[in-house]
Every structure is written in structure tokens, then in C-alpha cells.
From TrEMBL:
One of its GO terms (biological process) is phosphate ion transmembrane transport. InterPro entries: Phos_transporter (IPR001204). The lineage of its organism: Bacteria, Bacillati, Actinomycetota, Actinomycetes, Kitasatosporales. This is Phosphate transporter. Residues 395-428 are annotated as: Disordered. One of its GO terms (cellular component) is membrane. Belongs to the inorganic phosphate transporter (PiT) (TC 2.A.20) family.
Length: 428
């Protein structure tokens, strides 16, 4: 760790701060459905997720290599560029956390790196082919693949359980959901902690501490793993509420199927070096599981807000990072100004969040007054929900057996649509 200058040290600390925000921003990916279905208590869930995120950070460095030596060209990139990129990513993470939207921390980081690099050295500093093949295409494909996998897994789960007693299988599904949530946490550490490892490694290369193409040193792996684990333990309760209650209402079999599908997609992508968004994968899985049962409902107003946030993440974080890079390029006073703006902006967002706090004590409550992103009690059915409802028969017992209305001596009996053989035909 010799030859680390003051600026390089500031960049490393800022990268770990981003890793910390990544942890609490993405806790919902693994634990929202587990908490919402009651499989685990909130604090137990985030503690378990934190430990497994730390373990996952040691399993691979393929994604870190994509960040440090693939997304942008190391030659010509300065430490100031990386600092500006991290500022853009952190502020976008905090803003979307404030409004309770599960946006992608990964894409915030990518957008920051791309925006700062474009401002510093121009288009030649960005590897366009890597951006397309390992960022944009996975961003489109991953939530679709995860959603389809979760949809099919949920269908299969309900079919296999159709002849069993729901109460008898509930405990088994909850155990399976806890195991699958642990797998998602492990996968999250494997994928997301590596992004910070990659950024710190890139900073060390630009500061001539490491040779180009070097793997992350052990101290980088350990510090990135610890930072994301601490962030995960604090819990991003505002986003957990949106993922657990705002998108759809899940039962334990659906939560189990959603998390298993998501973990499979994330681990496969980590093995291939695809730095995809775990947020998008898990959100796609939740929606797929929500649509699978007959009469399944997804709250499309919340989903639409998420889609808009996903589309804005890359350009928004990139724009903030480009502005930060413009300032850092002015010299020491510019770097100081950016650091002050980062601290001030982060503090302002935190103060705003205290007006309507969400924590482990009220994250699953039905009271809607406190939530940053309120869960609608009811909303007009979307196109997909309406189409599914149109071909789904009402469940047995949905209508009352009969209704009596008496006015004077006149008595009317209205029977349910399903004839009851124990009663005579309707009479007046």
C-alpha cells in the first residue's frame, strides 16, 4: 500500500462509501420477499444477508476485472476521473433510496465512470463494445430472463403443491425461502462487491501503485467485502418496503421461486464476468412470481416508476459525474469543492429521509403515512393484470351463498351462480 497519495486515499475511501451505499441500497434484493412473507424477522434477515455478502466477496474476481480493465481504457484516466465517477454514483444511489426506488447501483457506477471519462478524455476512453455486451445487453436481458424463470418456477411450485395441504407445506416453503434468500445474498456479494474492488484496483493502476491488468490485492477484497456487509446490515428499509409490498403480494412459495430464479441468474452472470444489476434481476423475479398464480397482480404504477428509474440511472449518474469531473479538472480547489458538495448533498438527503423514517419496526406495517414510496391500497388494474383476470375463474366461495332482502311481506332470495343441490330453485 505504499505510494498512496492523499488524493488516491480519498478516492479509495469514497469507493468504500459507494460500496456501503450499494449494500443498504440492495439489501431488498435478497431479503424483501423473505421479510414481507414473514419467513424471517427484519433484523435477522439483514444480519444473515450481511454475513453472506461478505463471504460472496471472496468467491470470484471476474466482474472486478471487467470494471478495472474492460469498461474504460486505463491509459489517460486519472484519479480525479474515478473520484468524479464515484460522486455521481453515490448521489444517485442516495436519491433513489430516499424515494424508495430499487434502481441499479451497478448502473449508477457504470454511468459515473462513463460520464467522467467522456468529460476527461472523450469517447476514446470508453470501450463501446464492452459497454454494449457486458452492460447494456445484460441490463435488458437479465430481468426478462429472471422474470420468466421465476414465473415458470412459481407455476411448477403451485402445481406440485396443489394436492397438498397449504398449512402443512408452509413451514417447508419458508425454510426454502430462507435458503434461497441466502443464496441471493451470496450471489450479490459475488457480483456487487467486486465492482468496488474493480474501481479501487483501477484507481491504484492510475496512481501507479499496481501494474495495468493486475488482480485486486487481498486488502482491497477484504475492505470491499466488509463495506458492503456493513451497508447490508443497516438495511435499506425504504426500498425493502417497495420490493416486498409495493410491487406485488407474495406467498412463501412465490418468494422461494423468485429468489431461486434470481440467484441462479446472478451466479451465472458472475461466472461469465457479466456485471449485471442484481436489482433488475430480483425485481424481474418478483414480478414474474407475482403474475404466475391465477389472478396474480403486479402493481404497475410502482413497476413503471422503477422502469423509469432504470432508464435514467446511466445518464443521470453520468451527468453528475461529468459535472464533478469538470470541477476536479480545475485543480485542488475543484477537488475540494466536489468533496464538499458530496458531503453536503449526502447530508441533505439523509435529513430529508428523517421526515418520514422507515426502519425495521415499520417496514411491513399497513399504515401508509410514513412510507417514502407508499404502497397503494388499490389501483386500477393494468393491461397484463386485466388480461389474466379475464381468463381466470373466480375462486370457490367468492360469492355469498344467498342474500335475503325483506320489505314488508315481500321476500326475495338471490342464490349464488353455482346451484346448491340442497336447496330448491329460486322463488319469489
Amino acid at each position: 500500500m505504499e505510494h498512496i497519495t492523499l488524493l488516491l486515499g480519498i478516492v479509495i475511501v469514497t469507493a468504500l462509501v459507494f460500496d456501503f451505499t450499494n449494500g443498504f441500497h440492495d439489501t431488498a434484493n435478497a431479503m424483501a420477499t423473505t421479510i414481507s412473507t414473514g419467513a424471517l424477522k427484519p433484523k435477522t434477515a439483514v444480519a444473515m444477508s450481511a454475513v453472506l455478502n461478505l463471504v460472496g466477496a471472496f468467491l470470484s474476481v471476474e466482474v472486478a476485472k471487467t470494471i478495472s480493465g474492460g469498461l474504460i481504457n486505463e491509459s489517460g484516466i486519472t484519479t480525479e476521473v474515478i473520484f468524479a465517477a464515484l460522486v455521481g454514483a453515490i448521489l444517485w444511489n442516495l436519491f433513489t433510496w430516499l424515494i424508495g426506488l430499487p434502481s441499479s447501483s451497478s448502473h449508477a457506477l457504470f454511468g459515473g465512470l462513463i460520464g467522467a471519462t467522456l468529460m476527461s478524455v472523450g469517447a476514446s476512453g470508453v470501450n463501446g463494445s464492452v459497454v454494449i455486451t457486458k452492460v447494456l445487453l445484460p441490463a435488458i436481458a437479465a430481468p426478462i430472463v429472471a422474470g420468466i424463470a421465476a414465473y415458470l418456477a412459481t407455476k411448477l411450485t403451485f402445481k406440485l403443491a396443489s394436492k397438498t395441504d397449504e398449512k402443512a407445506t408452509a413451514k417447508g416453503y419458508r425454510a426454502g425461502q430462507i435458503a434461497s434468500a441466502g443464496l441471493v445474498s451470496l450471489a450479490h456479494g459475488t457480483n456487487d462487491a467486486q465492482k468496488t474492488m474493480g474501481v479501487i484496483t483501477l484507481a491504484l493502476v492510475t496512481g501507479n501503485v499496481l501494474a495495468p491488468g493486475a488482480n485486486p490485492p487481498m486488502w482491497v477484497i477484504v475492505s470491499a467485502g466488509v463495506a458492503i456487509a456493513l451497508g447490508t446490515y443497516l438495511g435499506g428499509w425504504r426500498i425493502i418496503r417497495t420490493m416486498g409490498k409495493g410491487l406485488t403480494d407474495l406467498k412463501p412459495p412465490q418468494g422461494f421461486a423468485a429468489q431461486t430464479g434470481a440467484a441462479t441468474v446472478i451466479l451465472a452472470s458472475s461466472h461469465l464476468g457479466f456485471s449485471l444489476s442484481t436489482t433488475q434481476v430480483c425485481s424481474g423475479s418478483v414480478m414474474g412470481s407475482g403474475l404466475a398464480p391465477k389472478g396474480g397482480v403486479v402493481r404497475w404504477s410502482t413497476a413503471t416508476r422503477m422502469f423509469v428509474a432504470w432508464g435514467l440511472t446511466l445518464p443521470a449518474a453520468g451527468a453528475v459525474a461529468a459535472a464533478a469531473e469538470f470541477l476536479t479538472g480545475q485543480g485542488t480547489w475543484g477537488v475540494t469543492a466536489v468533496a464538499i458538495l458530496l458531503v453536503a448533498g449526502s447530508g441533505a438527503i439523509w435529513m430529508a429521509s428523517r421526515r418520514k423514517p422507515v426502519d425495521h419496526t415499520n417496514v411491513t406495517a399497513d399504515d401508509l403515512d410514513f412510507a417514502a414510496a407508499p404502497v397503494p391500497a388499490a389501483e386500477p388494474a393494468g393491461v397484463v393484470t386485466t388480461a389474466i383476470a379475464a381468463v381466470t375463474p373466480p375462486p370457490a366461495g367468492a360469492f355469498p351463498a344467498e342474500t335475503h332482502s325483506t320489505t314488508g311481506d315481500l321476500k326475495t332470495t338471490l342464490h349464488s351462480p353455482t346451484p346448491d343441490p340442497a336447496r330448491p330453485a329460486a322463488s319469489v
